[in-house]
Recover the amino acids of this structure.
């Protein structure tokens, strides 16, 4: 499945799945789909929940012509172009990020590879939807881009071993770890520089794990105003997804709907000579093989 969150004009944000090569969306909350509704919106991310299992069955059944016609007549299918896509997990419980996790990025900076995952976090107010503006914060003149593979947790994980970790993954998405380098380096720690509002766009969708043959062999790119700035592969990850889940879950319980941003490849703005930082009017595109394109314009602080 390709899971999304969307809103009709003036309506609430609701969950759904892309159909018809991404041209239409099945509304999981529509009465005609008759899905059990979870007690919390993150319940859709729980692979063991009745809601998630029923949603999978409904998406599979929607491929049948008669069922598709029924859903369309009832208004349970909507055209993608007629709605606004939001981050596929609109309010994650946690956003956990990994620093210096690409071998080629470490080489770019001339630093040693970390001995264990370098963990930091973003606040939920960082979340931004696809096509939503990245806002350069007041006082920053060094706001930078970072394309990343996002991993969405689908099953509670506490003290999980690496060999069992992939069973806890819901799926994967494009993620943009926007960073105010001047804040990050001046503060001596990363929280403020990484956690400004709008600094975590992700989407457009979460592709469930069964749709991605090998998350460690995906081309990952970032384009700035059409020019390719980052171009690498998730094969360059220092710590792979099972190791990240095992390391994090030693001390932090992961829950359905949590998002892990797995690190960025080389080509970031602050490492360039001369440096390249985001400016109002820029357009950023994160593209990961099989996971679509996440596009966001850049605007000045409001």
């Amino acid at each position: 499945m390709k899971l999304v969150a969307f809103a009709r004009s003036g309506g609430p944000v609701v969950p759904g799945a892309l159909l018809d090569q991404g041209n239409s969306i099945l509304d999981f909350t529509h009465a005609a789909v008759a899905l059990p509704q979870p007690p919390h919106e993150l319940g859709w991310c729980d692979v063991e929940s009745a809601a998630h299992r029923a949603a999978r069955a409904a998406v599979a059944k929607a491929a049948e012509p008669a069922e598709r016609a029924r859903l369309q007549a009832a208004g349970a299918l909507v055209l993608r172009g007629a709605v606004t896509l939001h981050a596929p997990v609109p309010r994650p419980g946690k956003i956990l990020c990994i620093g210096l996790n690409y071998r080629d990025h470490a080489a770019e900076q001339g630093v040693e590879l970390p001995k264990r995952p370098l963990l930091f976090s973003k606040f939920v107010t960082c979340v931004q939807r696809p096509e939503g503006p990245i806002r350069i914060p007041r006082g920053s003149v060094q706001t930078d881009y970072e394309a990343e593979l996002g991993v969405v947790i689908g099953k509670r994980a506490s003290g999980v071993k690496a060999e069992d970790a992939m069973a806890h993954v819901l799926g994967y998405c494009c993620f943009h770890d926007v960073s105010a380098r001047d804040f990050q380096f001046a503060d001596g720690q990363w929280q403020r520089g990484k956690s400004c509002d709008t600094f975590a766009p992700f989407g457009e969708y979460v592709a469930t794990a069964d749709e991605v043959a090998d998350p460690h062999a995906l081309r990952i790119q970032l384009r700035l105003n059409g020019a390719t700035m980052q171009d690498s592969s998730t094969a360059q990850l220092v710590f792979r997804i099972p190791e990240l889940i095992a390391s994090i879950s030693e001390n932090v319980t992961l829950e359905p709907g949590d998002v892990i941003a797995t690190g960025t490849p080389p080509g970031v703005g602050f490492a360039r000579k001369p440096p390249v930082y985001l400016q109002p009017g820029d357009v950023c595109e994160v593209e990961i093989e099989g996971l679509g394109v996440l596009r966001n314009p850049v605007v000045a602080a409001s």
Q: What stands out?
A: The longest strand covers residues 200-208. The mean pLDDT is 96. Helices lie at 50-61, 65-74, 103-109, 181-187, 191-194, 241-249. The longest helix spans residues 50-61.
